[in-house]
Specification:
Length: 109
Amino acid sequence: MNSAFFKKNRKDIKPFLSIVIMICTLFFIAFLHMEERRLGYQIYYLSQQNKKIEIERKVKEIELARLAIPSQIMSFAKNKLTLRSPELNQIIHLASPTPQSGIKGKSFD
């Protein structure tokens, strides 16, 4: 008697289980689509940030190139740092090394 009851219940549960499995599958597919869209938005946001940073980098490179011009450095030193151009007696000249006659080795000629 007990086994006949379970067989009858199994017949009634099979359609219910198949519907539950289909609904769970549909929810899983919907979740995957939502996750794909979220990741797409995140990639778009990061690519926009990347473009912005690239533009800032290019601007900084141009600014560096502009500031590295010797005339710009000179004007910055005179105007902002209040430095003066060196006079003739302020410049130190360093002589190049001269070879010694008693030392063997490389010649500087």
